[in-house]
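Its record is quoted verbatim for completeness.
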Amino acid sequence: MPDLDFLPPFGYSHGWRDIVNDVSFDVDERRPDAQRSVVWESTDTIALTLGQSIQVQAKASDPFRDAITPVAGTDIIYSGTGIPQTTISRRSGQSTVITIIAVGGTVTITRLQLRARAVPVARTVKVSAADSVSVQRHGQRSNPDDAPWAGQHDAAAIAQLLLAHYAQRRPTVQLRLVSSDHEHLLQILTRTISDMVTISHGELGLSADFHIESIEHTIARMPSEGEALTDCGPRVHYATFGCERTGLVVPQNPFTFDVAGAGFDDGVFDPAAADNPEHVFIFDHPVQGQFDFGRFGT
């Protein structure tokens, strides 16, 4: 953070433990059944008086499509002088709410089911990617997380993003800013997650760009000399930033409309590191909203 001072403690990690150079996901591929079947059922007894209603949540083991409203006598086994009137909250997903109203008299339900086209797992595909250079240099370091809602191609894209970001170490730091003046307080209040800042530390020989990954605000009493901690003294607002060094290189020739040498086949789109709020394209902005001035970021 240029021209601003941070206070100790200053935490620094080389980033060795965060290296990921081998990524593997097991991706479930689902196919909807051609015919409807019972995707959920209950044998609980439900007793309703005239005009009484109840909501039952039907949660299936697999996602489903094209659910139909339960039909009295087929999906609802009941007795009594009345008739159960039903509606469902939605027809696709993994759960739906069945609303039942007793019409014309009392109703006692002994069986309730929901029919729909189930979407079970047809097969499981393993998606893998590795960075051989990083594996040779640092040993195999696998990603511990899953991608439960991703398809095959989405999982492959996630794997490539992880390798691009973590195949080489990314140092992380923790620093503390104290609201000692207006400039420091402004940084504490306006900085958000993913902002890019420049951090310099003379003793470590560090001067590089970092992305903010976590922010913790604290307001504490700072007693003056000779004052007890229990006395009501002035309060100081400080923030602890957790930051990770960026590994993206900002291109020297970003794509710009109507500029010779920076168009198609010449200019390149900026990566995430180039999302500088001072230059990114903003609609209705007097300068950054013009072609040749504002740049398209990510």
Q: What stands out?
A: Residues 152-166 form the longest helix (15 residues). DSSP finds three helices and 14 strands in the chain. The chain has a mean pLDDT of 85. Residues 215 and 241 are 5 Å apart (CA to CA).
